[in-house]
Amino acid sequence: MGFLKFLIISICVLYLLRALARIFLPFLFKKVVSNMQEKMNNQQAAYEKYHNQNQKPEGTVSVDYVPPVKPQKKPSLDNAGEFVDYEEVK
Which of 30, 54, 61, 86 matches a 20 to 30 Å C-alpha distance to 75? Predict the structure, then answer.
């Protein structure tokens, strides 16, 4: 008798949870989607604001960093290694 009572109560609880989920889950999903949409709109607005502030007129060039010029060494044949003479055969 106890097992039958447990089985009936658990089936009733499952049906009740399914009914409640069908009612409340759409509202929950709508709320989550609207929150995410609002966050994305805020990020887009912040990006556009930052991008418009740092935008330079077209045609201007600015260089932020110029690397130091290293003195160039002339290549010497002493360090180049061995050279082998060869003749081109046709």
Answer: 86
